[in-house]
Specification:
This protein is about 85% helix and about 0% strand. By secondary structure, the protein is mainly alpha-helical. Helix 12 runs antiparallel to helix 13 and helix 13 packs parallel to helix 16. It is globular.
């Protein structure tokens, strides 16, 4: 058990460290490309990225069965690879045939990018399924390298081509380069000579069908605000919403994505080996909120100054998106833990019902919200995120021991620390009197960040000591620091 905890902790730390680097690079890429491109370009890019992310998610659902199965054979790997190829070809064909329907939206650029969406659908399928066995074995360093190389390739090409072309095609080409880099890495580190076979299709589809339906409906629910805003309010508002939601996802969903890659294999391993599912479920909830909540709230507190410094005044309205969505999306990350627990239990049908219900509600909220222009649409997006959180908490009762809000109250020290942090950062902002000059804004942002980090850390430690130093997030951090210190001492010796 100690060996598994150590492997999970090291894996989470490795992926989190690489994730912090990638998100810093993502911020830099967003700031530079935002100055080179228009909000309308970001509106078109948003549609392409939504399509690409959807295709990636579906491919992930095909291969993720390799983590859940007890025994993996070459036939399983060949079947998963074949299903990846079939899914890529079918999705690409459907995208190509959707031209007449897309043309009804009255946005010519969307019709223009459809061939690129069809092509990247096939490209995303060309991944080594054997690479997922590293995650199954709790070896996450190669997964961290995969994501890092993909981000570096994407950022380099996106910045250069945005400067050269100054239109949305720069980002689309960069996404192709990033996907190709990822494919090459998976086959280089997990080589295999796949054969086309569907001999194990029953085992794969029995798990993947409900799982894929659940993920598809959840994906559409998450992205419906962006789709509806672009279709009803125009590409400029869609670009502003995309910029704000992009910053929000960087500090919540994407920052958390490395930890998410640990959760499912870790819970699966705990379930197979110890059966302590409930305890692991609550510990992961506590850890997620301790990391994600202060970062997302801190980003909201400095968002206006950060946008003025990094992206320019034309993007200032994106700060409103961050104010509304960042705290809610941080709490909403709990759904990944619930999803992983449902996978282990095999209750993917419940996830599908949950996400389909949420999708219907989000469509209704956005339909009403867009009738009141951009602010109404933003309020509807916030209500959609809050609804997703409530439904997640209802399902989470299956895997915990307490009441409806137990997944949140288990992290009460983190929530109280964030409240103190908010108060002191706002007080510091009032004393500093935010100005418009970039050098002054950079100093103000730095001061706010320092105040927030120090306040959150000290308050968290104080509450932990006052509570009697229980086992939790703090003990995990001290354990990792102790291991790191011991490793450095051994290297010096």
């Amino acid at each position: 058990m100690l060996t598994r905890r150590s492997a999970l902790a090291v894996g989470a730390a490795t992926l989190l460290a690489s994730g912090l680097f990638r998100q810093a690079l993502g911020f830099a890429t967003l700031a530079i490309t935002a100055r080179l491109l228009r909000p309308e370009d970001f509106g078109i890019i948003a549609y392409f990225i939504i399509a690409t992310a959807l295709l990636e998610m579906l491919q992930r659902q095909v291969s993720i069965v390799l983590i859940r199965l007890d025994d993996i054979t070459h036939e399983h790997l060949d079947t998963v690879f074949t299903m990846q190829i079939l899914l890529g070809l079918i999705a690409g064909a459907l995208v190509w045939l959707s031209k007449p329907l897309v043309a009804l939206l009255g946005i010519p650029e969307l019709v223009e990018i459809l061939p690129a969406v069809a092509a990247i659908s096939v490209l995303l399928a060309l991944r080594s399924p054997r690479f997922l066995l590293y995650e199954r074995g709790l070896r996450f360093s190669l997964a961290a390298a995969e994501e890092t190389f993909n981000r570096i390739a994407y950022a380099s090409v996106a910045i250069y081509l945005s400067w050269l072309w100054q239109d949305f095609w720069a980002i689309i080409v960069a996404l192709f380069v990033g996907a190709a880099t990822r494919n090459i890495w998976t086959f280089a580190t997990a080589p295999m000579f796949p054969r086309l076979s569907v001999s194990r299709w029953r085992e794969s589809l029995s798990f993947s069908s409900w799982s894929m339906g659940a993920q598809l409906s959840q994906f559409l629910a998450n992205n419906m605000p962006q789709i509806v805003i672009g279709a009803t309010l125009g590409l400029a508002d869609a670009g502003i919403f995309r910029a704000g939601s992009r910053i929000t996802t960087i500090v919540t969903t994407q920052l958390f994505a490395p930890l998410q890659r640990v959760i499912y294999p870790g819970l699966a391993d705990v379930s197979r080996s110890t059966g302590q599912n409930q305890k692991a479920f609550m510990r992961i909830n506590e850890m997620l909120l301790a990391f994600v909540l202060p970062i997302s709230i801190g980003t909201a507190l400095i968002s206006e100054d950060m946008i003025l410094v990094g992206m320019g005044y034309k993007w200032i309205a994106a700060a409103q998106v961050i104010w509304v969505l960042a705290p809610l999306k941080a709490l909403e990350t709990l759904q990944a833990n619930v999803r992983a627990a449902s996978y282990i239990e095999g209750s993917t049908r419940i996830l599908f019902i949950r996400n389909a219900t949420l999708l219907a509600l989000v469509c209704f909220f956005m339909w009403v919200g867009t009738k009141f222009d951009f602010r109404g649409a933003l309020a509807a997006a916030g209500l959609s995120s809050f609804t997703a959180l409530i439904i997640t908490l209802i399902i989470a009762r299956r895997f915990g021991k307490g009441g409806l809000f137990e997944p949140l109250t288990v992290a009460w020290r983190s929530i109280l620390s964030c409240a103190v942090m908010i108060a002191l950062v706002i007080f510091a902002d009032m004393l500093l009197h935010t100005g418009a000059h970039v050098p002054r804004l950079m100093v103000i942002v730095l001061v706010k960040v320092c105040v927030g980090v120090i306040t959150y850390t000290l308050t968290h430690l104080l509450l932990w000591v006052m509570a009697g130093r229980p086992e939790g997030f703090e003990t995990l951090v001290f354990s990792l620091l102790s291991r790191l210190r011991g490793h450095l001492r051994r290297e010096r010796a």
